[in-house]
Amino acid sequence: MGNLSVIFKRELASYFATPLAYIFIVIFLITNGIFTFELGGFYLRGQADLLPFFSFHPWLYLFMVPAIAMTLWADERKTGTIELLLTLPVRLKDAVLGKFLAAWALMGIALALTFPIWITVNYLGDPDNGVIFAAYLGSWFMAGGFLAIGSCMSAATKNSVIAFILTVSLCFVFVIMGSPILLEAFPAWVPQVVVDAFAAMGFLTHYDSIAKGVLDLRDMLFFAVFIGAWLVASAIVIEIKKAN
CA angle, 4 as apex, 109 and 25 as ends, to 5°? Predict the structure, then answer.
């Protein structure tokens, strides 16, 4: 736990040691405001909830999260510092988890700083704050899923731009897998169990219910297992690259 804590603190501090974290947070807050108030018709809906705010998060994360994830390992491999890191008395799992948790914490900070939108909806009406809290939690876990994919893609290449493109592409696949439009496009001869299994792997299937306040343990478990699986994949990729 000691090495994990050290790596986590070092990585999180490194974000704020450069303008990267501040630029990311500002862009994140601005785009959330535009999506919620302009594109989401926040005031026109006449309802005291944050559904317009949370409904855009899967698509916002599709580009914002890979921008953070692409540097997790690609820069380390490009500069050669990954060799130095792996020769230190640090377990690989601590390095992978520490880097991931630091990036996830940055996402949590950015998400928490959207609190003025939460205050606004409470000022204008009487929303169910339990539902809003559940949606925030679900959004953060979904961001973790995007980051875990990005960690693996970043570990697979020295080029951060390639890592970004690969992460966006894979995340897009997992987002649309739960899209009603895609599920309805399945031919009638496809067994329903296959369609359900396909939908169960999609982010939207699990996130939409959480965003509506239904905090089902199965949905949270999905994201937890999903994150864990991709972090394990990240460690395997790093080991393979190290062997080569």
Answer: 15
